[in-house]
Amino acid sequence: MKKIILLACILIMSHTGAAQQAFVKQSLVVNIEVPVRVFDGSTFVDDLTIKDFEIFENGKLQKIEAVYLINKRSIERSNEKKRFNPQTSRNFFLFFEMAEYLPRVGTAIEYFMNNIISPEDNLVIITPLKTYQLKKKALEIKPRKEILDEIKGIIRKDTWQGNSEYRNTLDDITRTAQSISALLSDGRENIPAIIEKNDMDPDVQLEQNLIFYTGLLSRLETLRKVDQMKLLDFAEYLKFKDGQKYVFMFYQREFIPQIDQRILSQYLSLRQDRMDWVMNITTLNDFNRRNISFDVKRVKQAYADASTSIHFLFISKPAAHIPGVTMEEHSEDIFSAFREMAEATGGFISSSYNPVSAFKEALDAAENYYLLYYSPKDYSEEGEFKNIEVRIKNKGFKILHRTGYFAY
Known about the structure:
By secondary structure, the protein is of the alpha+beta class. It contains eleven helices and 19 strands.
């Protein structure tokens, strides 16, 4: 959490007989920093002053002590009733959660390296395998082209290796779904080689395929789980990082291969005599309904408390067309959770097949912002989450800011 704590201690001495007692009175002054972005449509509003803002904590109007207009790392304008020392250094975190490396992601990184990052900035890259930090002064001693090629190579290699089990499982599910669709439609000549062709009874082959298919879906469910502790640990790390913190999450749209629903419905209508099959087949879809494996409210409050802007870039690659298989999207649950996290931190949200334009738009949105400071009335360290709301007087602007902080 971005807050500045000042302790004023007053020592009072009293004399009673031969004994002395010391009483310490502490007055706690906590100043809360709130990065705020204000837009009129898609245009950043850069002419606001301290008189234009209102800030509420848990619904109570607070007194704003200072407002600073920031462009990149520079303080362009200040309105102060009390002087602060804003930390405007920039920390970029590029987080890649993709099943495959897309060349357009490399183009997006190229734009970032050539137009945004400077030697004064910090850069951390998080891949499915490892976390990398750009060394200090690397941009001063090495050509940007050389650094860019190295970064793209790392992302490509780690994406390929880190998600190989996920991709292989999806391939197995696809081939098995094709096998099942072929068996259901009595097209045994079209069965892929994942199950060896033989003279086994079609019903037995179908049963074996269904068991295998169910096991693959269970494995995929395990691979798709999001680790809450890792999310919270990352938020805790960011909380104590100085300066402004920008997390850009590249997340690729997910599709789960399913048995062709048309073929499945036709088969079930003809095999009502096998109620065990009917029940097994109709419950397969339960594997494709992922329950969110983390507490969204807790996680988004942790990132808001860390004063971190999360920018969620959803890469909406279209589904592949595969005979006998329905490619059903199953990323809406994670999309919803990460969208809430971005909104709770005052971040940017984009859904696009083109990560270049989405990344540019998010970077542009992060370049300009206001820093507001206020001292909460009746502050107490009870550990509760304090909700923050920023308003612009008499204006219908779009306002992005973190939703609160924990009072510790």
